[in-house]
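tool=predict chain=A
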Amino acid sequence: MPHPSAPIAVITLAFGAGILLREVGVQPHFLYLVLSAAALGVNHVKRWYYLFWAAAAGCFLILGTMRYMPPENALTSSPNLHEITISKTLNTNSFGHQYIIKTPSGEWVLLQTDLDKVFTTGDRFLIYGTLAPIAPPKNPIDFDFKTYMRRKGVSRKLSPVTPEFIPLSAAASPRRWAHNLQQRLTRQLQKNPLSTDSKALVMALILGNKTDLTEERITQYKRAGAMHLLAISGLHVGIVLMLLRFLAAPLKRIPYGGVLAAIFPIVLLWCFALITGGSPSVVRAVTMFSFLQVGLALRRKNASIQGVWVSCIVLLVAQPRLLFDVGFQLSYSAVFGIVWMMPHWQHLFAKTNRFVRYLTSLMGLGCIAQLSVLPLSLYYFHQFPMLFWVSNLVLVPFLGIILLAGIGCIVVSFFPSIYGDLNVMDSVFQGYQWVVEWIAQWETFFIEQIPFRGSDAVLLGAVVVLLFYFLQRPNKQKAVVLGVVSILLHGQFYLDWNSSPKAWVAHAYKNSMLVAVNENTLRVFTPHKTQKIVRVAEQFQQHYRLDSIEYKPLQHTYQNVLVVDRLGIYLENENVKTVLLRQSPKVHLEALIDSAQPKLIIADGSNYPSFIRRWEKTCAEKNIRFHATEKDGAYPLN
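tool=predict ok
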């Protein structure tokens, strides 16, 4: 008999599959929806159970394709005056701040500003600038920021022509109010006598602000397998929900106490979301656990996992783009794994004493959560902290205490007369971070640069699901299917990876870089081995699963490629098919073309833009192909 949560699971998975199909270009058709709905009605009348749910899946598959609307490929606009509203704050790096803004036409646009221009959600301005498509990655192994933003509904960026931002009256919104509340609490927290490191920890755990955390501290959390503790996520919201359920338990003794005990945690969860600034990740986690709380309050078998499925479909219907959000994928993978497998794990130790049950529950929780997110974490981050179980045994049990202490520090910040009582809390925070330092020192157990493809993630995800299904109720049929999929996964690891070109002219800003594959070694030809060159080379090595890297100086020729540097000196060669121009050589390009008779001219990232424009014009006149890595990205030589 199918699991009680199977219907809502089928609906959610079908809707998500429809979103994926639309993303890859499948167009929705209303006729398909009508046919699926007709089949649904017929199967319902005939009582054909499995065909009924197949038709239901078809309906929601089509609805998913209709609900998700990819942004159109917009063109570059001429400079104009734009009225914008700050909608969301993105990352901040050494170059400046990034925001998603909204124009009066309803288009979502990317805005990048200098570090001295800091804006808040809801701020409105007039800007004179140009709208242009977001550029694709310069190298094939670079992060595809264009696709990343496209899946957020953004296809263009606004480039200001003048530096003036003319302020307008701010647009009121709940998110702006939550952000202002977060900033007020942050300013108040800065006034208390906690150490700088402790304040940074409280700001990260309670207020969702990690700007004061040092790079060294963030690296320590990564190596300890505890990075998820710094970002307010489902783990924090889940712990807060447990604390609130414990505090609300006495309400059940009064009339209508059961209803109050169910509603009280949900209301305070949303208050917690406001304190953290109302960021999308926190709102998503609070929504998920609100439905989970409803399921737990109903006290029905399987109500909790059904609540998680319902929250998932509600969020996807409201915001289909969440399906491509890494945080969304990780949160739901972990929660589904925990809700699915933890009851079976706890049943194994039901007859042991309380202390053993507590330790085994902590270990099981960490292992199940890590196993649930393993395919996604390997695919997105290419790293695996082997000491995650130590972090879960040592750090997670005290996270609730740390959260309560952090909230207490924020409350105490409003009462300067009792600042002296914060010394104990400061010692608790410093002790917590000392444990992280101790775990992080074992760098040998932190595996980085793991090559992992999308197909590997799909197969490993199937193995994890089948493993959970097998452990739930083992039998021979499940074991055979699990074994077959596991063999396919291991077999894929031995297959040849992406057949890499023999050589690339890579793009490196103000530098030159030519990479070539020789057997299983990556050879990098460059005049200056900088940190940027090393990073790009390591990405090539990881992407194509090569064993080693060799760095060599860039010569004047490479096979049938003639390299012309700033000296403009070159030797005539009859076998030249490609000319690589670097360091803005003062060369007469027409004479070079007439002499070498190349089929292609490449200008890399070390050339001045004015030189590149002149060369492109000359090549167009001579009917010669021209490729500039600054605009067109890296070029495969063969």
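The two ends are 57 Å apart (CA to CA). The chain has 23 helices and 18 strands.
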